[in-house]
Structures are given as C-alpha cells and as structure tokens.
Amino acid sequence: MSTLSTPDALRQCYAAPMERAVKKEITALDVHCRRFIALSPFVLLATGDAEHNLDASPRGGAPGFVVVADDHTLLLPDAPGNNRLDSFQNIVATGKVGLLFLIPGIDETLRVNGTAVLSQAPGDIAACTTERRAPKLVVRITVQAAYLHCAKAFMRSRLWDAGAQVARSALPTAGQMIGDQTGLHVPPETQEAMALRYAPDL
C-alpha cells in the first residue's frame, strides 16, 4: 500500500492554494460571519480527546441558537441528548473545538475553530435561555479562525435538492438498527411514535 506520510509528499500532489483561499481565514467574526450564524439552525461540533481520538456531533435549534456574544466569542447552549457527553468530555480534556455552520438551501458553509470551556456562568446561561428551556451549560468558544467554505461539496452531493432526497423507508428505524448493533431490543416503534417521544426534548 502506498501512503503519503509527510507534508512535503502531500503538497507535491496538489497545486498551491490560491491567494484568496489563504487570505479568507480571519481571526474574528465580521458582519458576514455574524449574519451566517444568525441564519444557521444547524452546526457540527468537532472535538478530540487527549489521545487524539476525534468526534463530530450535530447540534440544532432555531436559527441563531448559537449566540454571538462578541467578535471573538460564541455561546453554544446544551440541549437534551443521549447523555454520553462525548463532546463535553473532549472539551474538558483539550479545550479545542471546530464548528461547521450550515444554512438550509445555501451551499456555502462557515467554519470556525477555537478554544472552548464549559460555562455555567449566569450571564452565559441567560444569553442562551429560550421560552422552552434554560441550558444546563453553555460551550463558551473563543474564536481563533473563521472562514467561509466553498459550495463544491454541497453542489456535488445535491444535499438541498428535493429530487435527491432519500425516502426514510430506505433504512430501518433507528431503534431497529441500534437493536441489531447492540442486541438490546425494545418494542418496535414507528417513525411517528419516535417523533412524539422526542418532542418534549426538541
């Protein structure tokens, strides 16, 4: 098997990045980043532990659920989940995060990298409290880099194209799949019943 194991070997396979691709990385949230985040109902949170084991977790809410506290600070509220706490344990271990913000219908994404702490400061909790709930904690992120990512991946995948959507019936229910994977079987549950069960935590 032939592998690339050095930065020089990797770079030889690709042309140098264009000037704009290098310069588009900024160190603070400008008006365009702020607007993008305000319109985004979905972000992928990437973290890693001290042994470099990596994790990516989806987070969602009403558009703008991630709060821009200032040009260098984001507040990502906790919401009810599976209580594994993978992302939070990684943040405690390394204090590093990567974020990928998505807006339905828009092919560009916004990438934000920085450091993070788990905050229960009253001001952070209040800033992320909605009519539905106050979070148990807030991921307080100090922005180190932010940049807009080009549309090519979304154009290739046709992610927002209704004609490319896959019927939910193409897969078993989540309960069936997890039951097969774990051997822990629970009574069958329809997609509609699952949605009702999730509703109080949405």
Tell me what the structure shows.
By secondary structure, this protein is an alpha+beta fold. A seven-stranded antiparallel beta sheet has the order 2-1-5-6-7-4-3. A hairpin with a 2-residue loop joins strand 3 and strand 4. It is globular and about 55 Å long. 18% of the residues are buried. The mean pLDDT is 95.
Strand order of the largest sheet: 2-1-5-6-7-4-3
State Rg: 19 Å
Helix/strand-derived category reads alpha+beta
| Quaternary structure of the protein | single chain
Provide the low-confidence segments as ranges: none
What composes the largest sheet? 7 strands, antiparallel
* Overall 3D form: globular
Number of strands: 7
Number of helices: 8
Overall mean pLDDT: 95
* Share of residues in strands: 25-35%
Helix share bin: 25-40%
N-to-C SSE series? HHHEEEEHEEHEHHH
Span from first to last CA? 47 Å
List keywords for this structure.
single chain, 202 residues, alpha+beta, seven-stranded antiparallel β-sheet, 8 helices, 29% helix, 26% strand, globular
Explain the layout of strands and helices.
Elements (H helix, E strand, L loop, with lengths): L6 H6 L6 H5 L7 H9 L2 E7 L5 E7 L6 E4 L2 E5 L8 H9 L1 E7 L6 E11 L2 H6 L10 E12 L2 H6 L16 H9 L8 H8 L4
Task: Give a brief outline of the structure.
This protein has 202 residues and is α+β, with helices and mostly antiparallel strands. The protein is built from eight helices and seven strands.
